[in-house]
Each structure stands twice: as C-alpha cells, then as structure tokens.
Amino acid sequence: MLLRIGENIQILNKRVRAAIDSREPSYLQRLAKEQVQKGAHMLDLNVGPRKRDGAEVLPWLIDTVHAVVDVPLSLDTTNVDALRAGLRRCQELGIRAMINSTSADPERLEATMPLAAEFGADIIALTMGKNLPASAEERVELAVSVILPRAAELGIPPERIYLDPLVLTVNGCQEHAPQTLNAVRFLKLASDPPPRTVVGLSNVSNGVPEENRSLINRVFLVMLLGAGLDAAILNPLDERQNEYIRIIEERDGSTGVGRLLLALHDASAAGESLDESVVDTSDPEQVAIWRTVQVLENRVIYAHSYLQA
C-alpha cells in the first residue's frame, strides 16, 4: 500500500504562511484533519528555512497539528536547528517523525543523517549531490555509494530510509520523467532488503495550467506505482487521484478507465510502454490518459494544449 504523505501544510501557501506567522492554529488544524480524513497516513510540515525562528515555529506547528490528528509527521525544513527542535518535540509526544530531507551532498548529509540516527527518525534522501544527475543510473550510484553506506555507518536500518529520485516538471523538463521511473525501478534492486522510495508527486505538474495538474499527477503516480514506488508526498484532497490509487491497490478493472490504469501500471512494472490498442478512443478520459502517458514517456513534446492534439 502506498504511504500517502499529505503536502498541504506548506509555506508557499499564503494562508499557511499567514497562519504560521500569526500563530493562528485553526486553519492549520482544519487542513490537517481534512488530509487525514481523505487518506493521508502522514503529514508533511513544510516551514521553509525559517532562519530567525524555525526552532520555535516547528515545535509549535507540531503541537498544533498533533492536537487534532494522531499521525506521523514529516519535518520539512533546511534549518538544522529547527529540525532538532522538531525531532525533540516529536520524541516527547511519542510521534513517529520523518526528516525531509538529506542528500548525497556532503554538507547536507552530515548535517541531517546523524539526526535520524540520534532520534530514531525516518529520513528522505534525495539522490543528488550539489546538482541533480541527468540519468537514473547516476542517481542510483549516489544512493548506493554515498547515502546508504553513510546510513549503515550510523546504524540506520534500510527500512527507515526513503530514497527520492526527484521529480521535475513536464513543463520544460519532461525528459526527466522516464529517468525518474527508471530510478525507482533500479533503486528497488540497490540492496537486500530493498530501500524504500518516495517522490514529491506534484512537482511533475509545476507550471502546468491548473485544470491539467491533477491528470498529470495521477497518471504519473500510476506509472510510479508500477515501477515500485513506496511513498508519495501528494495532495490527499484530490478525489480523482484517490480514486486512481484505489483502482490500483484493489486491482479494480470493473470500468474501462480502471482496465486502462491497470494496463498502464502493469506495463510500467514490466518496464514497457502502454499498448495503444487497450485505449478506448471513444472515451474522452481514456484519450486524455493516453496523451498524458505519451508526454510522461517523453514521446510527445509537452505543451499547455497537449490534450487538444
């Protein structure tokens, strides 16, 4: 089953930022409850760098959210002091915590990976150093040669590490989508037991018109699940996305769309492309899914009008 990490409490949301800045809990608590009610197993708390007050803000936010929902929390900040304070507060409250995130960059790795060992936290590790490697193989190499060995040195078991092969937007960077899919496949072979994998799903549709974002997100998620993805930071309030997840997890082929999504999932699991013959071209949703797959496989150049092609 996919571990769903709710993304909606994040500092780029103006209402979230205002609520954090004013220490007003009601909107944040409503977001927390809505996400859990819609299936989130964990909540990501993205406070940004917060260089001035991060060590005070993150524990306050943890208290605010924990007052209304009892789920694990992903602490999303580059501020190491804030991370330590947040991890300490989670430990005091008995909350399972995740660090979001470390990477193969030596400075970042040494600042954050020891915190995971110290506090017994899960940790997301980006498969990049100072820059993002272009190929899946290079991303896997960083995981195998840098990230996993350092975790082992610190006594962090593989099941607490979530490797993130990084998702970039199809709007200008669509060539990375197949690489991300391959990286998920290859990472599952990186160790025994295999490491877990995670992505920030919504990144794939950054800069895309709002009306098309959910479609791109949920189709890519089906492909990622086929590749072996374990977890995703996503919008749990997206009902159509939730339905796609349900179809895959329950193997529900009772509808035409369901059969197409299962075919897409299984093709991805086999490392193959979706066979066009399984698409019912009289069904507009199936056609939209097919055209989205062509973009995500980098077979058709993305344009905002790609669904009208």
Keywords:
309 residues, 8 strands, TIM Barrel, globular, eight-stranded parallel barrel, alpha/beta
| Overall radius of gyration | 19 Å
Number of strands: 8
**Helix percentage:** 40-55%
CATH architecture: Alpha-Beta Barrel
The named CATH superfamily: Dihydropteroate synthase-like
Structural class: alpha/beta
Can you tell me the residue ranges where pLDDT is under 50 for at least 5 consecutive residues? none
Q: Quickly count the helices.
A: 12
The strand line-up of the biggest sheet is 1-2-3-4-5-6-7-8
Largest sheet: 8 strands, parallel, barrel
Overall geometry comes to globular
- The termini sit apart by 35 Å
CATH class: Alpha Beta
Number of domains: 1
Strand content: 5-15%
Q: Which oligomeric state applies?
A: single chain
> Quick check: average pLDDT?
97
Encode the helix/strand succession as letters.
EHHEHEHEHEHEHHEHEHHH
Structure described in brief:
This protein has 309 residues and is of the alpha/beta class. It has 12 helices and 8 strands.
Would you write up a description of this structure?
- Helix 4 (80-93) runs parallel beside helix 5.
- This protein has helices spanning 14-22, 25-37, 54-66, 80-93, 106-119, 136-153, 170-173, 176-187, 210-227, 239-250, 256-269, 284-296, and strands at residues 3-10, 42-46, 73-76, 97-103, 122-126, 161-164, 196-200, 231-234.
- The chain has an eight-stranded parallel beta barrel with strand order 1-2-3-4-5-6-7-8, surrounded by five helices.
- The protein starts with a strand and ends in a 13-residue tail after the last helix.
- Helix 5 (106-119) links the parallel strand 4 and strand 5.
- It contains twelve helices and eight strands.
- 43% of the residues are buried.
- It has one domain: Dihydropteroate synthase-like (TIM Barrel).
- With 309 residues, it is α/β, with parallel strands linked by helices.
- Helix content is 50%, strand content 14%.
